[in-house]
Amino acid sequence: FRRVLIRSFGKFLVIGIIWSFCFQGLSEIRHLIMDYGYGFEINTSKLTGLIVIFRSFLLTIIIYILGKSLV
Questions:
Q1: Distance set, CA 43 to CA 1, 26, 47, 62 (Å)
Q2: pLDDT band for position 4 (50/70/90)?
Q3: Whole-angstrom distance, CA of residue 32 vs CA of residue 23
Q4: How distant, in Å, are the alpha carbons of 40, 64, 68 from that of 2?
Q5: Would you call 7 helix, strand, or coil by DSSP?
Q6: How far is CA 4 from CA 15, 66, 71, in A?
Q7: Using N-to-C axis directions, what is the helix angle for 8-35 and 42-70, rounded to 10°?
Q8: Model pTM?
Q9: Whole-angstrom Cα distance, residue 65 to residue 41?
Q10: How far apart are CA 23 and CA 58, in angstroms?
Q11: For residue range 18-32, what is the model confidence (pLDDT) as tens digits?
């Protein structure tokens, strides 16, 4: 498993999978909040969309760094 992480394609693959899970999870939380009737205004919708994107990148970096120290 370490050989896969060392190579560039392996890192790209792992980071891509981590990001997709983080993005999906945060998007689900956003849509759950929207199910309760909040966040349908255009400005709020755009803002929460950007928050999901940026936080998914941040969460990906944190998980990758923490996971790298464990392996």
A1: 44, 18, 6, 28
A2: low
A3: 14
A4: 45, 14, 10
A5: coil
A6: 12, 17, 12
A7: 140
A8: 0.84
A9: 36
A10: 10
A11: 999 999 999 999 999
* Three-state DSSP string of 36-60: CCCCCCHHHHHHHHHHHHHHHHHHH
Tell me which DSSP letter residue 1 carries.
-
Size of the chain, expressed as the number of residues it contains: 71
Determine contact, residues 15/61, Cβ cutoff 8 Å: no
Give, in degrees to the nearest 5, the angle at Cα 67 between 66 and 71.
125
Contacts 24+ apart (CB under 8 A), 8-14: 14/64
Instruction: Give the three-state DSSP class for 5.
Output: helix
